[in-house]
């Protein structure tokens, strides 16, 4: 060991650099796909200036539903590949949902004098995101219970 190196305490695991890079690659690949899907939604259903941003609301609500479904579903999975969670939840669905765009749209609506639309969008997004996560999680739990009882999902 070089004289300047500090030994790790007993039982301490050093980071697996190869493992870290594969996780980062999974997040990047998932994020690229999710971001491209969100961008595509914006191209298909553009929001005219000063109007309610239905596309971003739909993207965020559906993304939250899928996050709740996926992450709760993983808790009942028998085996989980170590890259599945970073690829899908952090990468794909994290790239798909866009709360930064949401805040910019609220700011732009307020700056454009569309206070009612901005406040409605603000409240609707929070409600839809929470309802989406809750619904996805509840659905995954119901499917898991049914599977345990021998029923089909």
Q: Helix and strand layout, with pairings?
A:
Elements: H1 17-44, H2 54-76, H3 84-96, H4 99-111, H5 115-148
Task: Describe the fold and architecture.
- The chain has helices at 17-44, 54-76, 84-96, 99-111, 115-148.
- With 153 residues, it is mainly α.
- The protein has one domain (20-150).
- The model has no long low-confidence stretch (mean pLDDT 89).
Attribute tags:
mainly alpha; 5 helices; 153 residues; 73% helix
Strand content: under 5%
Q: What is the number of independent domains? A: 1
Shape, principal axes of CA atoms: globular
Low-confidence stretches: none
User: Mean of residue pLDDT?
Assistant: 89
How large is the radius of gyration? 21 Å
- What structural class do you assign from the helix and strand content? mainly alpha
Distance between termini? 55 Å
Quaternary organisation of the protein chains? single chain
Number of helices: 5
Helix content: over 70%
Number of strands: 0
Q: How would a textbook summarize the main sheet?
A: none
Pfam families: CRCB
GO cellular component, one term: plasma membrane
Function: Fluoride-specific ion channel. Important for reducing fluoride concentration in the cell, thus reducing its toxicity.
Protein name: Fluoride-specific ion channel FluC
């Amino acid at each position: 060991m070089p004289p300047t190196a500090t030994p790790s305490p007993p039982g301490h695991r050093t980071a697996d650099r190869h493992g870290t890079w594969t996780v980062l690659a999974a997040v990047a690949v998932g994020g690229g796909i999710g971001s491209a899907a969100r961008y595509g939604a914006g191209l298909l259903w553009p929001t005219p200036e000063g109007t309610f941003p239905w596309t971003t609301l739909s993207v965020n609500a559906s993304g939250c539903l899928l996050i709740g479904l996926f992450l709760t579903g993983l808790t009942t999975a028998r085996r989980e590949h170590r890259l599945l969670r970073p690829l899908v939840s952090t990468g794909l669905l994290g790239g798909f949902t866009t709360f930064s765009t949401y805040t910019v749209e609220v700011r732009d609506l307020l700056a454009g004098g569309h206070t009612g639309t901005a406040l409605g969008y603000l409240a609707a997004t929070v409600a839809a995101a929470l309802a989406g996560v809750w619904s996805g999680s509840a659905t995954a739990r119901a499917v898991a219970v049914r599977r345990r009882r021998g029923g089909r999902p």
